[in-house]
Write a structure and sequence with these properties.
Structural class: alpha/beta
Largest sheet: 10 strands, mixed
Bound molecules: guanosine-5'-diphosphate, magnesium ion
Distance between the termini: 8 Å
Strand order of the largest sheet: 4-3-5-2-6-1-7-8-9-12
Shape: globular
Helix content: 25-40%
Number of domains: 1
Number of helices: 10
Number of strands: 12
CATH class: Alpha Beta
């Protein structure tokens, strides 16, 4: 079930090569909301080749390719670096770090892990220069202090720059231990953000990463509905000839809001009545081998999630 047949892999790669440009997804939010943890979940590994202890990093732009690291300066200069030295990145000079790795998710999109929005040690110019290049934003808001004033204000200032389809991820939902609190936070977020996001998804990212083969834990993490929505978002967006993402009309105007994931263990204990296939990593996969190029937005047919 988990291994892609070789011909499917080739056909899937061909589809992806046909795409003029991959979508670029920026992960944004306050410091410590869970952006880097989310990137680990999506990539199936930490994109930082070594343990980088620096807490202040410029935007980290991760693309598909042989493992490597490059520093991009504000002056446009590019310098390949030893990944082990990313710790010593000079924030004054470096506009972003570009990393490449061979992760399935990166066959679908590039990921940009952005610095925290209100980090007093980092000028917002550092990330503002990069956000304009993103097509979509996954905004990570910490469940216990969700959608602070600073988040609402920053989002207001940048959302026009995105393609219009963005996701609000309510991270660290495991820290709200009652179902009632979870429902309350989600209701407030829905009210305060209106139609500014395509969907609002509560997730426990560490649980999702640690779920392993534990299906109940994976389901309880809330990661499944979020990843499905993300893939749908990526496949739905068309590109104009100039490479600018345009939105195809939405089927439903409603903002998707996933159910608050079940709180603590006793509620999770029920055996899910679902097939033994769960999304674990984002994976490009073709349904049937067809020589001609597939229509965009043909999400269910073109890609599906599969757990390794
Ligand atoms: N309990 C819990 N902790 C989390 C979750 N996601 C991230 N964390 C922890 O929160 C801290 C900040 O996460 P990080 O991804 O570094 O945040 P970033 O600053 O937004 O990149 C780390 O210690 C993570 O392990 C979660 O869903 N639940
Ligand atoms: Mg981080």
């Amino acid at each position: 079930m988990s291994v892609m047949k070789e011909n499917e892999m080739e056909s899937s790669e061909q589809d992806l090569q046909d795409q003029p440009q991959k979508r670029r997804v920026a992960l944004m939010g306050e410091f410590s909301a869970g952006k880097s943890t989310l990137s680990n979940l999506l990539l199936g590994a930490d994109p930082m080749p070594t343990r980088v202890t620096a807490t202040r990093l410029p935007p980290v732009w991760v693309s598909y390719g042989a493992p490597g690291a490059t520093l991009v300066g504000h002056d446009g200069s590019e310098e390949d670096v030893d990944p082990a030295e990313l710790d010593q990145v000079d924030l004054e000079r470096t506009r972003m770090i570009r990393l490449s790795m061979e992760s399935d998710a990166l066959q679908l999109c590039d990921l940009i892990d952005m610095p925290g929005i209100s980090d007093p040690n980092m000028s917002s110019e550092v990330w503002q220069s990069v956000i304009g290049e993103a097509d979509h934003v996954i905004w990570c808001t910490h469940a216990t202090q969700a959608w602070r004033q600073s988040e609402a204000a920053t989002w207001e200032s940048i959302r026009e720059m995105t393609s219009g389809r963005n996701i609000l991820l309510v991270t660290q939902i495991d820290k709200l231990t009652s179902q009632r609190d979870r429902a309350r936070v989600l209701a407030r977020l829905k009210k305060e953000t209106g139609d500014q996001f395509s969907g609002i998804y509560p997730v426990a990212l560490l649980d999702a990463i640690r779920a392993g083969e534990d299906e109940a834990r994976w389901d309880a993490s809330g990661a499944g509905p979020f990843i499905e929505a993300l893939i749908e978002m990526l496949l739905r967006t068309g590109l104009q000839e100039d490479g600018v993402a345009v939105e195809e009309p939405e089927a439903e105007a409603e903002v998707a809001i996933s159910e608050p994931v079940a709180a603590p263990v006793e509620e999770v204990a029920a055996v899910p009545d679902e097939p033994r296939v769960m999304p674990k990593r984002v994976q490009a996969r073709s349904g049937t081998a067809r020589p001609e190029r597939r229509a965009r937005g043909d999400a269910g047919d073109l890609q599906q999630l599969e757990r390794f």
